[in-house]
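Aim 2 progress update. The chain analyzed this quarter is reproduced below.
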Amino acid sequence: DGTAENISFEDNTIDIILCGQAFHWFANYRALTELNRVLKPNGLLILIWNLADNRERPWTKIMWEYVDSFRSKEIP
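Predicted structure tokens:
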């Protein structure tokens, strides 16, 4: 349980935080402080907005290649 401003994990315990289409709803300064608190050193915070499945653009092609590398072969 928790919010972006009050995460119920201990300090430096999270490798990656992914937030899609939501960060603009957070109290940004408090949320960033809290996200930084729970991220491990060199952890990643990934924020995504308006993600269109337009694989023709160079940046989205690179992003989708990365995302697809984590998909199981059974997932269409």
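The first strand starts at residue 14 and ends at 20. The radius of gyration is 15 Å. These observations will guide the mutagenesis experiments scheduled for the next reporting period.
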